[in-house]
Write a structure and sequence with these properties.
This protein has helices spanning 9-16, 24-37, 57-65, 78-81, 92-95, 106-121, 125-141, 152-156, 159-168, 172-187, 189-212, 218-224, 231-262, 264-271, 277-287, 320-324, 327-330, 356-373; strands spanning 7-8, 40-46, 49-54, 70-71, 148-150, 297-299, 303-305, 308-310, 315-318, 378-379, 402-404. It is an alpha+beta fold and 410 residues long. Strands 1-2-3-9-6-4 form a 6-stranded mixed beta sheet. A 3-stranded antiparallel beta sheet has the order 5-11-10. It has a two-stranded antiparallel sheet with strand order 7-8. A hairpin with a 2-residue loop joins β2 and β3. The radius of gyration is 21 Å and the shape is globular. Belongs to the cytochrome P450 family. InterPro entries: Cyt_P450_B (IPR002397), Cyt_P450_sf (IPR036396). This is Cytochrome.
């Protein structure tokens, strides 16, 4: 089949996150794309930088699970080898090889990833949940007397890095500065380089402090793990967790709050006193995922994928939003998705999100705190007028979510 035109990443972004996308609209869009190209579509990441989009669930799974054929290391991309990926491109930070599990495969990835998994397994989840609820409650306390707030700028963008900083044993002031640096990294270009340096400075100082004064926190656990050979590798592990988790968690919090405050199925239950937060999170993960495309993989040899010939050195972008809506997985009945956690929004395989459990704890606490503590909270603007960010290759979430509620004197 010969495609009639080339799809760009921006096309998929706009289609996935059009105001009426959640539900039938998204299914119609992806059905049309599949009818034209099949489960794997040729396209462009930016002008002149050709990629493939893996939209089918099976093809998505094959790409992210098989690192022997599809590498995460950007050095294997022909566009990098040909000098087409420049420092001012948003994709640049994600294909610049660094000494961490995010950018590597095989034995090196396993050595660098295992300490992260081991450290996270030692987190006291009950104690951590209490810490996160404290952060959320402090932010809500600042809103109560106003009777109105912006649930993005006053709340959601602050929570993930403050929560992750707490897990690393860092103070609130460090968490806020890391949040700003992480946002620069995801913006690409010169700002990305500045953001990496700012993050590194904060983290190196904290690692030195923890070497002098070990604590029962994630930083000390990473320092003590023999799988990380020096402070640079500890720093890189921390940077990956900060950058990867920040935008994903902001997006999940804001998307879930928007769904619960605008969709009558959830808003009605809210007014009736039944807060189905977990169900709302799962619906967001299926139908409006916080990360709609993940970092490209690079073919290590010629291979057939979804009826297309992928050449050695080609880039394949795994499209979460499209894979989640593959009719093979969901059919035409949305009720089949309830309780079904086979979505790909946490990814899977060797590079699956290592912090799914802490991330879920953060989202649950953030959403429940708003719904439980802001009396009669409602959106102050129609849901279809809530604007989303446009500066990310992977994330699209509300940049502002004004709400009103009954003022409460604290």
């Amino acid at each position: 089949m010969t495609p009639t035109r080339t799809v760009r990443l921006a096309d998929l972004t706009d289609l996935v996150h059009a105001p009426d996308t959640v539900g039938p609209r998204a299914r119609e869009v992806h059905a049309r794309l599949r009818a034209e190209w099949g489960p794997v579509a040729p396209g462009e990441l930016s002008p002149g930088v050709r990629v493939w989009f893996a939209m089918g669930y099976a093809e998505f799974s094959e790409v992210i699970r098989n690192e022997e054929v599809f590498s995460r290391n950007g050095d294997n991309w022909s566009a990098v080898q040909e000098g087409k990926i420049l420092p001012d491109m948003p994709i640049y930070p994600f294909v610049t090889t660094r000494q961490n599990s995010f950018h590597n495969d095989g034995e090196l990835r396993r050595r660098l990833r295992s300490p992260v998994d081991r450290a996270l397994s030692r987190v006291d989840e009950h104690g951590y949940a209490a810490q996160v609820r404290g952060i959320c409650n402090d932010l809500v306390d600042d809103m109560l007397e106003r009777g109105e707030a912006d649930l993005v700028q006053d709340y959601a963008v602050l929570i993930p890095l403050l929560s992750v900083a707490a897990m690393f044993g860092m103070g609130q002031e460090v968490g806020d500065s890391m949040r700003k640096a992480a946002h620069k990294v995801l913006g690409g270009g010169q700002l990305a380089q500045e953001g990496v340096i700012e993050l590194a400075v904060e983290i190196v100082d904290h690692i030195a402090k923890r070497r002098r004064e070990p604590q029962d926190d994630l930083t000390s656990h990473l320092i003590d793990d023999p799988g990380l050979w020096d402070d640079n590798e500890v720093m890189e592990a921390m940077i990956v967790m900060i950058i990867a988790g920040n935008e994903l968690t902001i997006a999940t919090i804001t998307q879930t709050l928007l769904l619960m405050l605008s969709d009558e199925r959830f808003a009605g239950r809210l007014r009736g006193g039944r807060l189905d937060v977990d169900q709302a999170i799962e619906e967001v993960m299926w139908r409006d995922p916080p990360c709609y495309n993940i970092t490209p993989r690079f073919a290590l040899r010629d291979v057939e994928l979804g009826g297309q010939l992928i050449r050695k050195g080609d880039a394949v972008v795994p499209c979460i939003a499209a894979a989640n809506l593959d009719p093979v997985m969901t059919g035409d009945d949305p009720w089949l998705e309830i309780g079904n956690r086979a979505h790909m929004s946490w990814s899977a395989g060797p590079h699956a999100c290592p912090a799914m459990r802490p991330g879920t704890i953060i989202v649950q606490a953030a959403v429940r705190t708003v719904l439980e503590r802001l009396p009669e909270v409602t959106l102050a603007v129609p849901a279809d007028r809530v604007e989303r960010n446009t500066d990310s290759l992977s994330y699209r979430y509300p940049t502002s979510m004004p709400v009103r509620f009954v003022r409460t004197l604290t």
